[in-house]
Amino acid sequence: MSGRHPKQRPKRRHGGRGPNWIAIGGAALGIVMALAWMLSAPRTDAPFELQAIAPVERPPTAQGGVTHPVISKEVAWVMRALEGSGERAGFEMVFRPRIEVCREGDLDAIKGDLDLSEVKRVILTIEELVPSDGQVPLYSKPVHFSLLERGGNLRVDLPRPAAPRQLGLFICKDSSNTGRCNDKKVMRIDEILMEHQRYGKKEAGVLVDDRVYFFQYFFVDGNGSFATFQNAPVAKETFANLSEKLAQYFPVERLEAERQVLQQAQNTIRKVDSLPLLTEKQGVAALLPGTGGKKCTFSMGPNGWPTSFRPSSE
Is residue 146 part of a domain? Predict the structure, then answer.
């Protein structure tokens, strides 16, 4: 049998200091409270990313109506800093006509409405998605149709938002001179074009409703940045992803209301079916499809619908 004794734990000397359980408990409680605050407070220190999901190809309508092309970007959502210092900041708005011979679009709808309207006033606004009494848009300015049709730039300056906000960027007819678009009628572009066909060549002055021609969701984070969707159409999974991300920006008590606002934006995007606001080096580009006034000829198919569209030689 070995003469060595098993090792024993050394005894604490009398008067030595043991663990300060009160201090340790207080520190642990502080860490738990800090974590709880971090998880509950809105986080606006860094932009979030949205999963890039390829948009679904649009099937043509039975009437051969408006079908915008699919635009698919690797990034579904781009955050960009507003330019400027002080109380106002903004960005360069680029209107880019997208001529599509034999396929009428936004520009044709606007021109047709203006031809039939006595008051030819089109405006660009950035404002709340849900109208309310006494509401003032962050930005509202008349836009001449020639700028939309030929393309060009417009400087957009707005009050620097101090808190996250879900907004919309609109182009609409404003013969009522309210300076707002969120209170205007929302229709599909092909519905507007079909309305023009019903009016035919009636004289100008026909009562044409004020309505929205272009709409895109416009998010500001409260830290001097904004974001827009980059794909068209926007996949439903992208909206679901964004709905979850809103928790990073809005407190719990407001989250459900803000998600309802996002649902309103989704409904309007689906209805108006505008092409996206593309974030580019020179600014934010609104793509506006139209025929550019070029005529088109077609042959009639056996089912009575036009087929074989081609540019006219006239």
Answer: yes
- Could you read off the pLDDT of 191-224 as tens digits, one per residue? 998 888 776 655 545 567 899 999 999 999 988 8
240: its two tokens: 């679901």
Q: Are 196 and 187 in contact (CB under 8 A)?
A: no
Nearest CA-CA partner of 143 in 151, 135, 134:
151
Q: Which of 153, 117, 142 is nearest to 286 (CA)?
A: 153
Q: How far is 77 from 255, CA to CA, in rounded Å?
A: 20
Does some domain include residue 200? Answer: yes
Give the HSE-up count for residue 217: Cα atoms under 13 Å, Cβ half-sphere: 30
Is 45 part of a structural domain of the chain?
Answer: no
Residue 184, judged by CB atoms within 10 A of its CB (0-12, 13-18, 19+), counts as: buried
Cα–Cα distance measured from residue 282 to residue 129, given in angstroms and rounded to the nearest whole number:
27
Give the pair of three-digit tokens for residue 292: 């550019």
Q: How many Å from the N-terminal Cα to the C-terminal Cα in the chain?
A: 116
Over the stretch 48-87, which tens digit does the pLDDT of each residue have?
555 444 444 444 443 334 445 555 555 678 888 999 888 8
Enclosing domain of residue 126: 77-292
Q: Which residues pair with 97 in a beta bridge?
A: 288
Query: Are the C-beta atoms of residues 123 and 134 closer than 8 Å to each other?
Result: no
